[in-house]
Write the structure tokens for this entry.
Amino acid sequence: MGELLFLTVASFLCATLSGVLGLGGGSILIVLMLTIMSPAVAIPFHGVIQLVATGNRVILFRRFTAWPLVARYSVLLLPGVAVGMLLFQGLTEDVIKVAIGAFVLTALFIRRLQVFRERDVPPMVFVPFGFVVGAVSIIVGGVGVLFAPFVMRDGLQKEGVVGTQSTMAAMTHLAKVAAFGVVGFRFDDHLLAFALILPAVVVGGYLGRALLHRVNDRFFLWAYQTTLVVLSVKLIVWDGLWRFWS
């Protein structure tokens, strides 16, 4: 029961954080879950929690979401998840996480170069993004860090960034949860935990939205990019290199 209460409080706080920034909560939550769960249980369990958390934000921010980008992202998402179920069974988690962290840091650096600072990636780039993120989502809990650098676009306010990213993440978690269900994961063995955690996640999402309205645009952009950098460094150093050498 102590572990269950810990997960409930942690899920609430992480959902609140993601409600403000659109990302970060899922990556933090999977780390906390892995301290008391095996990866084989934590990843699909985390997928359900994140599906509810991001799905709640889809509803809260639907008016601001860039739906054309979401539509492109969805085209190859399911094939990506299917490939990920096959491909990453033989690839170490350390290698994947280092690659993801390096990719995000590189993307952020390129966007800060003067020649690219005022340019958005073409919308069609979100089509292959859907495939790649779908595949990697099988072993990575927080998927938002992958496409987050490219969701920041001209004309998209902070609510639009959160809504667009949350919708893409919700679709990814839905596909991932369905895939784990197909291969036989017993979600019904955790009904009591879900009954406590999922309502806390929904309340956290509403609190995050309320806090977002109090955050000015410049601080949001700084916090968003800083969170991406911190999560990327964590993926490279802690999740990847440290665990590889230890």
User: Anything to note?
Assistant: Residues 107 and 113 are 10 Å apart (CA to CA). The radius of gyration is 17 Å.
